Amino acid sequence: MKDNRKSYVGLRLTAGILLGTAGACAVVVGMLGFGLFALGTWLSLILVCIGVLALALAVWSLLLLAKIEDKLFATGATGEISRRERAQKTLVKAVLYLFLSVLALAMIFPFYWMLISSVKTVEEYNLATPTLWPHEFRWSTYLAAFTGSLNLGRLFLNTVIVGVVSTLLSLVVTVLSAYAFARLEFKGKNMLFAALLATMMIPGELFTITNYITVSRFGWLHTFTVLIVPFLVSVFYIYLLRQNFMQIPNELYLAAKVDGASDLKYLWKVMIPLASPTLISITILKMMGSWNSYIWPRLVANDDLHRLVTVGLRGADFRDTLTQLPDFPLQMAAVVLVTVPLLLVFILFRKYIMRGVSRSGIKG
Amino acid sequence: MSRKEKTVKKKSKNQWKAWLYLTPMLILLLVFTVWPIFNTVRISFLCRWNPDLGAIVGYNYSDAMNGAKYQFGINNFINVFTTGDSFLTALGNTMLLTVLTVPISTMLALLIAVALNSIKFLKKFFQTVFFLPYVTNAIAIGMVFAAMFGMVWPNLARPPVSVGIINTIIEAFGGKYINWVDSGSSYWANIAVLVIYIVWNALPFKILVLLGGLQNVDKQYYDAAKVDGASRWRTFWRVTVPLLSPMIAYVVITGFIGGFKEYTSIVGIFGDSMGPYGAPGKLNTMVGFIYDSIDNNQGKASAAALILFAIIFVVTMINMYVSKKKVHY
Amino acid sequence: MKVVLEHLTKIFPSRSKKEKNAEVVAVNDFNLEIPDGKLIGLLGPSGCGKSTTLFMISGLQEPTGGKIYFGDDDVTKLAPENRGIGLVFQNYALYPHMTVQQNILFPLQNLKGKERLSKEEMLKRVSEVAKLVQIDEYMNRKPSELSGGQQQRVAIARALVKMPRVLLLDEPLSNLDARLRLQTREEIRRIQRDTQITTIFVTHDQEEAMSISDYIVVMKLGVVMQAGKPQWVYDDPANLFVAKFLGTPPINVFKGKVQGGKLYIGEEDVFDVPGVEDQDVYVGIRPEGFLLSAEGRLSCTLSGVDVMGRDVSVVSTNGASFNPVVRSIISADELKNISGDTVRFNLKEHKVFLFNRETESRVYFGGQSAAHAEKLAEMEAEGTFHASHEGALPREADDKPKTETAASRKRGLFGRKKSR
Question: ipTM of the assembly?
Answer without folding.
Answer: 0.88
